[in-house]
Amino acid sequence: MRPHAGDDAHTRATTPTAVRTGPDDARTAAAPPVYAISTRGLVKSYAGPDGSTTHAVRGLDLDVLRGETYAFLGPNGAGKSTTLALLCALARPTAGQATVAGADVLSRPDRVRRLVGMLFQHSALDPDLTAEQNLYIHARLYGLRRRHARVRVTEMLEAVGLGDRRRFPVRTLSGGMRRRLELARGLLHAPEVLFLDEPTTGLDPHARVQVWEYLRVLRDRHGSTLFVTTHYLEEAEHCDRLGILDHGRLVAQGTPHALKAAIGADRVLLRTGDDAAARQVVGRTAPSGLPVNLDSEGVSLRVPHGSAWIPRLCAALEAHGIAVHAASATPPTLDDVFFHHTGRSIHAPGPHRTPGDPTPADPAPGAGTAATEEAP
User: Fold this and answer.
1) How many domains, the chain?
2) Bias category Low complexity: which stretches (predicted)?
3) Residue 316: inside a domain, yes or no?
4) Distances in Å between the alpha carbon of 185 and those of 112, 144, 182, 190, 225?
5) Res 323 pLDDT > 90
6) With contact defined as beta carbons under 8 Å apart, do 176 and 195 qualify?
């Protein structure tokens, strides 16, 4: 089933093109969108040794525009890496359809593999070879002629800032340098789509920032579509759009801004001299029906225009003799978005829900996503 028409309608709208229908009549018509990735009802299941079935990907419907940076956001075990394997034609889907760079993953898997690049979650470089040798071997495996391969190796080493390290063995390079080298390797054959599975896992914050800077530059220079899986919220902010994957299902997608705006409410947090009593007062003062939570941080609730509610709540608490030590209102974050759609934090090891929070809908396999979108 396709996502709701309103979910991605704005994203799928493309730049108008002029159409001349008469000497004095000029109208604009929307050119059809060009998708780098398109899936319908994609499913991947595995049979367990005890006869059970594990559903890693459940009815995935997805469209990624050419030249877009799209991220899968989800915790470990959500199905992100399995989805990448399906889209790279490294695994065969149990059901459904998928096309990548215009090639069908089922009928033309060899073409799909030639048109995509892949940066694996764990390093696939040979540590005993030099940076230059690693890239040259990869270029030759992809069919580049010797002279062209040498030119591309030099170009890509310079592009990722490793030109002066070309003859250094990979084992002598830092973690950030190795990741940039793998990025260069993935782009050697000028793929139409570059898949990146947790591209900055294990890197320090500075190296992670560097990798994303190179990703943006290389995407703009080569025009490749970037498809990224990550569980780092700050990395998802770099992407044009993102999808939230939970237990193999795409439960929401949109731009980071639109997904956060869809929640609509700020988080108001109050620290008081008596949080248990404060929760009761806040519950009576706040708009009816809003859940008020109490945890180690204090008393919290989600309310539109949170900063405007702080003086009113503080006045009510002081009228009941409850001292307010701190009060803050923060706009929604991507972790809030993830919690809103899945019922748990992206960093939580398992299902968790704060008492009073609504239960997110659990769509059936193949169901449309609860997405929100805005014009690019």
Assistant:
1) 2
2) 364-376
3) yes
4) 17, 13, 5, 10, 16
5) yes
6) no
